[in-house]
Automatic annotation (TrEMBL):
Cellular component GO terms, alphabetical: plasma membrane
Membrane topology annotation: Multi-pass membrane protein
Lipoprotein found in the keyword field: no
TM region(s), chain numbering: 12-39, 59-91, 98-115, 121-143
One Pfam family of this chain: ArAE_1
Annotated keywords: Cell membrane, Membrane, Transmembrane, Transmembrane helix
Origin organism lineage: Bacteria, Bacillati, Bacillota, Bacilli, Bacillales
Main location, first listed in the record: membrane
Compartment list: Cell membrane
Keyword Nucleotide-binding in annotation: no
Protein name: Uncharacterized protein
Source organism per UniProt: Rummeliibacillus stabekisii
Length: 364
């Protein structure tokens, strides 16, 4: 089992909250530890947003708890009614993410009894807030998340796997069930990449220049992710219509195979270009002079359709599915060209940042 940074930070936040609460002579430090668990978030921005919402939620929970104790006393029925009112108010104010901790605050305050109820209520409210602030501080200074490095690495690794599977599928060398299982896993990993992208997007750049750099990076990564999705769609079509591809004329099979080989090599070189290992210029590779343009591919495909209609066999059905395959390949190609243009534009503006990405990847 791998211990991630968030797991370690959650444990450290609990320890910090307990020690701080004990140092402040809080009567029940355990409430600070519980609050630290609820307040821990995967990014600095979410931690900042959470601490604001938790403060609001805890104030609501504390105020409702005090009012219900004064009105109804410490009866269990009063606790349930206070919980209902707290839930309704939190939902009304769109503070759903802070509901759990607000309810905890409400219950621990209503549990306090005695003549000095208000004092105990303030102390327990402060104890809960100690846990919230402890989680924020730990997230701020201990192993701050590096989502850009993780995002680039995740895209790169997933794309390598996609490229290998496409090369096998287009040569009819992959086993059907293995390809199906791999496709399911690739789609799940793609969803995790999207989550990493939004976490990286949420991180705030505070300096003016950094904001422009971050904005351009987001454009690059967004196109990287879009292109990865297009490559998954190509693999999916090759998997679904492997029988139709096997029955195509040999010349057309070779055209599809060679075109995908060129595009996959193109994609590999784009990652090298972004990491600063290739020059900032239009990407070329050996044999590109023999590469067919899109209109030439469509001309060949149109001729194949004419022969298929003249044949009155199963070729017409194959041609129908071939249209889906070609549309995915051409869509993939257009996204690669757009990614190449975006990377070149970014390199021209921020060449030094690309070196930093490469160094970060080596450190990681």
């Amino acid at each position: 089992m791998k211990l991630g940074a968030r797991i370690l930070k959650t444990g450290l936040a609990i320890i910090t909250a307990l020690y701080v609460a004990k140092a402040l002579h809080c009567p029940t430090p355990i409430f600070a530890g519980i609050a630290a668990i609820f307040a821990m978030q995967p990014s600095l921005y979410r931690s900042y947003r959470t601490i604001i919402e938790q403060i609001q939620g805890n104030i609501i929970g504390a105020v409702i708890a005090v009012l219900f104790v004064f009105i109804f006393g410490h009866e269990y029925v009063a606790v349930g009614l206070a919980a209902i009112v707290t839930l309704a108010l939190m939902i009304r104010l769109k503070l759903e993410s802070s509901i759990s901790l607000a309810l905890v605050t409400m219950i621990v305050i209503m549990e306090a009894q005695g003549a000095n109820f208000i004092t105990f209520a303030l102390i327990r409210f402060a104890t809960v807030m100690v846990g919230v602030f402890a989680a924020f501080i730990v997230n701020l200074i201990f192993l701050p998340p590096r989502y850009e490095t993780r995002l680039f690495s995740a895209i790169n690794i997933v794309q390598d796997d996609i490229i290998r599977w496409i090369r096998l599928a287009v040569r009819q060398a992959s086993e059907h069930s293995s390809t199906k299982q791999s496709l399911r896993g690739l789609k799940q990993r793609y969803e995790r990449i999207n989550s990493l992208y939004y976490l990286f997007k949420e991180e705030r750049a505070h300096i003016g220049k950094s904001k422009y750099i971050k904005a351009r990076k987001l454009v690059v990564y967004r196109q990287m992710i879009a292109t990865t999705l297009k490559s998954i769609e190509v693999l999916n079509r090759l998997h679904l219509h492997e029988n139709e591809i096997a029955n195509l004329p040999e010349r057309f099979r070779i055209i599809i195979q060679e075109r995908l080989d060129y595009l996959l090599t193109y994609h590999e070189q784009l990652f090298l270009k972004y990491s600063g290992k290739l020059k900032s210029e239009p990407t070329t590779w050996v044999g590109q002079e023999e590469y067919l343009q899109r209109n030439e591919v469509m001309d060949i495909f149109a001729k194949h359709i004419v022969f298929a209609h003249a044949d009155e066999g199963d070729e017409e059905f194959s041609s129908y599915h071939l249209l889906h395959i070609l549309s995915r390949i051409l869509d993939y190609e257009e996204n690669l060209e757009q990614l190449d243009t975006i990377i070149m534009a970014y390199q021209n503006h921020h060449a030094d940042e690309l070196l930093k990405v490469e160094l970060d990847n080596r450190i990681e």
